[in-house]
Amino acid sequence: xxxxxxTVVGAGPAGLAVAGELGKVGVPAVVLERADVVGSSWRGxxxxxxxxxxxxxxxxxxxxxxxxxxxxxxxxxxxxxLEEYAARNELDLRFAxxxxxxxxxxxxxxxxxxxxxxxxxxxxxxxxxxxxxxxxQWPGRETFEGRLIHAAAYLNADPFRGxxxxxxxxGCSGMEIAFDLAEGGARKVSLAVRTQPNIxxxxxxxxxxxxxxxxxxxLPPRVSDPVARLVRRRTYGDLTAYGLTVPSEGPFxxxxxxxxxxxxxxxxxxxxxxxRRIGVVAGVERFEGGAVLLEDGARLEPxxxxxxxxxxxxxxxxxxxxxxxxxxxxxxVHGGPAAAAGLxxxxxxxxxxxxxxxxxxASRIAAAIxxxxx
Length: 374
Hints:
The chain starts with a strand and ends with a helix. The protein is an alpha/beta fold. The model has no long low-confidence stretch (mean pLDDT 95). Helix 1 packs parallel to helix 10 (354-373). 28% of the residues lie in helices and 23% in strands. The chain has helices at 13-24, 40-43, 75-88, 172-183, 210-217, 221-236, 251-258, 267-274, 316-319, 354-373; strands at residues 2-9, 29-32, 92-94, 101-105, 108-113, 116-125, 132-133, 147-150, 164-168, 188-193, 199-200, 203-204, 207-208, 263-264, 279-282, 284-288, 291-294, 299-300, 304-307, 311-312, 343-345. The chain has 2 domains: 2-131 and 313-373, FAD/NAD(P)-binding domain (3-Layer(bba) Sandwich); 134-307, FAD/NAD(P)-binding domain, CATH 3.50.50. It is built from 10 helices and 21 strands.
């Protein structure tokens, strides 16, 4: 059985950052990763994907983006950035080593993997806030005669040229995928909305939108929510006639209560909604063979349904038995302090500039573990 000082679970930006910061303070760490590459979740996302936050707030410690990187790095730029970070920091990466369960035994953490068991004095879980694709159990889903995929499996519009598409969920991914389909030749694109989204711009003029959002996050929601609504109105206008209304719960209130980030949307997507190239429809009620029935009684017959319905943390099999998760499956303690003796979580706070925040969390975790191992 392998035994380590620190084991990091997950080789995404959070896991790489904490391993890199531990290396800077002289604490050896091994990174266990289920896939065979770093940043695996980024590689499978849709090709149009860009970061919602700027490169200024989305970098890891002492790791600027290469010259020529756009203000909002693309999917491929992000994966290249993570590969370079791992190589430059000479991280000890163990691929095809997913962790199935973590237990406390004899004063050490025991990690069960398909390749055997590992023991470690410290464990840092960094498997990601958006880990496990989630598709609702809509009634009749199994009878659907078309194609049903999660947004995590959508790459581009090529397979759906000439098709009628229904995208379910008006978050960042849902709106961008709907736009990608409309631009990519789908015959008809509908966007199903059950809960009205809080919409915020990626850029506020020449200023990246995450910079003022980070400032607003530090204020009480009773102050920041009205400011966000004002920015929405001035940026996009009144979208009620197109099926997008302003929700009663503001973006910062919802972020704190449900850990649900607003939809970061470029003007070109809203223009497509206003131009009716993307039709906003009611939420999905059920499936019936080749049809999808909506909450308002409407009936669609799409060739493909893309479920942009979010992700779960997927932590229950790993640590659910340890009493460290809240009712939403989010670690009760994360970002620095130990959730249990020698057990920490990083990357579970969705907010503007999240990757930069992961870097700061990594520095705090490395400093704390360094003191505990002295």
